[in-house]
Amino acid sequence: MAATFISIINRLSSKYAEWYAAGSADALSARFSKEIGLMAKAARSHAVTDWMQDETNPDKIAHAYEEMLGIVGELYSFNLYVGLEGSLVEYRIEEDGSTDEFRHFAELNKNNADDVWYFECIKSDADYLFSVGIDHVMHRKRVWLDYKVKCEGATLGVICTGLEFSHIVGELFAHYDANNMRGLVIDSTGSIHMDSSLMNNNDFLYEEYFTKIEDVCVDPAFRTAIRAYLDNNEGYAGMALSADPVKISSSPYRYMKIAPIEHTDWSIVILSGTPQLFNLSLFIPALMILAIILIIFAATAGAANYRLIFLPLGRLDRSLSLLKENNSMQIYGIERDDELGELSRTIQDLFNKANIDALTGIYNRRFMENNLAHIMEMLSRANGMLSALMLDIDNFKKYNDTYGHDRGDACLRAVARSIEGNVTRANDFIARYGGEEFIVVLPNTDEAGARVVAEKLLDGVRAMDIPHTGNAAAPCVTVSIGATTGRVSYKQHWEAYIKQADKALYMSKQNGRNRYTFLEFPDKVDL
Description:
alpha+beta, Beta-Lactamase, Alpha-Beta Plaits, 15 helices, globular
């Protein structure tokens, strides 16, 4: 029996790695596919190619600008960089810019490290390249997509957009159980670009990072499988097939699985342990099925057994069902001083680990995504209002550099408490979005209400008067806020509200920080 149980556990561990590898690869492939499609649209536009061949023509400038401006509005990052091969001049296009601002941004120079993106793309055989690097204008780490512009076989230039690195990492890894799962994104050389174990590390999120996948684990089976996979990876045109799970013997993890990310030369590498710490979302269906079976069996059992065993299990089953609809509900049996109480407390603990940010004690990104989707579903039935606010601690990297990471963690906790203290309605909630970013969700709240909350949040953080000599906006810790309000319909997706709030936050930073910017939710938002 013991051998059979161990065999089942091993098979589950292997499957666990497969599920996460496939799901993560599909999610990132879908995100990149949309951006690639938009960049291809710009690169193939007659207006863009005509302008690149006649750079100073005012009419062609206007037509190209309007064409690219429309595409910028659909991109994740709201901006484009454009380099021209003829003049080696770089342009920058922002969604809120104007034709008058469409002018030279910089001169492209092969000896300038900031311009490597352009020359690497030009000499590449691929139509586009993905990379990770620092946006020195916005002082943020980005996932860069560089796309060649060609006409009749001649390369005219490169257009480039950057996806927010911390957001991509959060979207990809927020639901991972850090104690039992590690996810990495590598390129065809084996360089690590993303690492779930570092998703709350600000140095990783905002600084350059260079590590090879072989350095993650010394297990021979791991290294052999990685090398064989990379040797078969022919880049964007010939992606290696998904490799079989590999059992690891000399590591905290038990299995490794690799899956390719379509449209790139990147791959997901998943390291997983045994399934005793599976995500609660995997536990609930199994527990519900078990409880239902036991309840059915109870119909043939004695009344005493039913009252003592099966009735409490039935109540636990119902509370788990309701938990899927209401994440704040308490699981039945936690107060009991028996085996069922132990089971209930274990499930509650797993739920907290899956939904609560360990550093700040507020909800994490996984909870935000699930709960916001549920809230929007409810609001859409009544055509209700929804407001979303995104907050970012101003110049937080400088705070860490000046005062150290322990003080930085304390600052994050203090800001989280301040936000929590100013968001008090029962159905409102806050969550840590990633790094130093927070989300506030306000159901049934109009623009006026969102503005009131934004002012309270700004005042609350300033009132703590935490010294911050590296903050250009004030001598103390401050936040920038982006807010949006819309009337919810069933056609909308929760991500559209986050994107609009993020866009407003970007404007707050551009305008000096330590303020909020409100943007009305548009009638149509493309994700």
